[in-house]
Design brief:
About 30% of the residues lie in helices and about 30% in strands. Helix 1 crosses helix 3 and helix 4 crosses helix 5.
Length: about 300
């Protein structure tokens, strides 16, 4: 059995401009996506020479187990595209909030594809990107090396330069504040009824904090005014502007450094009181980490004992 492990980072959209609705049901976008050091841990086991299907488990989150998980769908798509008959087991240790606009499901799916590409020695990046795009619009981004401008429906990527940023993310866990991406885009279309959607210039290679914008934010906050209050907490504790990530409901603010972010985290946890709001300190990454062989804690302990 071949065992591989990969970190699946979250992301924020520092820029998200949304164009017109396309005939295929998607929207053209112009977005700057940046990976974070907040990450899930994805373990992939390939049962060499043993035909079988795909299993997917998320310990502690049985609601995410099974074939509907985007990671399981990615494994199935990989098997079909590259003719893999071996059984595949996926285990995801979740750290990224679910349905938050932080890309956790897409990142898990990409981590599975990266592991399987290494296990099966697939070096055709174009074919792998096609598989990723068939699974989800954000999945190709998580196959790339780091920050990127995304266009099309998210599958066309161009590297971007973003200096490291210290962020505080607020994620309200109240199910009443959950937002489906499809709803967020539909609400935006409704606000534009009779108006032309914006057009975009080519992507920039560098990013300035003043460039931050999210076209989905207005319609979502209008329907969930509680998020306006939560976003205001960030601004009240020194964030350089609060903004919703993706289709939300998570909001984030940029702070002057890690110590300022930590101080804001402590204050915001007290401010939230008994309210179900995750307060997360994180930092943007310049590059994604690779895939590595998985070693059980037992075997690592044995080697450490022998060395001693």
């Amino acid at each position: 059995m071949l065992r591989l492990v990969a970190r699946a980072p979250a992301k924020v959209n520092l820029v998200l401009r949304v164009g017109a609705l396309r005939p295929d049901g998607y929207h053209d976008i112009h977005s700057l996506m940046v990976p974070l050091d907040l990450a899930d841990r994805v373990l992939v086991r390939v049962r060499r020479g043993r035909a079988g299907g795909v299993t997917c488990r998320c310990p502690g989150r049985p609601d995410l187990d099974g074939q509907s998980n985007l990671a399981a769908r990615a494994a199935e798509a990989f098997r079909r595209r590259f003719g893999v008959a071996d059984g595949i087991d996926v285990v995801i240790e979740k750290r990224i909030p679910v349905t938050a606009g932080l890309g956790g499901g897409s990142s898990d799916a990409a981590a599975v594809l990266r592991c399987l590409a290494r296990a099966c020695r697939v070096r055709d990046r174009g074919a792998l990107a096609e598989v990723a795009a068939s699974v989800g619009s954000d999945v190709p981004f998580f196959l790339g090396p780091g920050p990127a401008w995304a266009s099309g429906r998210g599958e066309r990527l161009r590297p971007a330069r973003v200096r490291p940023l210290d962020l505080v993310i607020l994620h309200p866990r109240d199910p009443a504040l959950a937002i489906r991406a499809g709803d967020a885009y539909r609400w935006l279309d409704e606000t534009r009824s009779g108006k032309a959607a914006p057009t975009f210039r080519g992507p920039k290679r560098s990013f300035r904090p003043s460039d931050r914008v999210n076209d989905l934010e207005g319609p979502c906050l209008e329907r969930h005014p509680r998020l306006v209050t939560i976003r205001g907490w960030l601004e009240g504790w020194g964030a350089a502007g609060g903004m919703m990530s993706g289709s939300g409901p998570a909001v984030f603010g940029v702070f002057a450094g890690r110590s300022a972010a930590r101080a804001a985290q402590r204050a915001l946890r007290q401010r939230a009181g008994g309210e179900a709001v995750d307060v997360i300190v994180t930092r943007t990454l310049r590059r994604l980490l690779g895939v590595s062989s998985w070693k059980s804690p037992r075997s690592a302990s044995s080697r450490s004992t022998k060395r001693s």
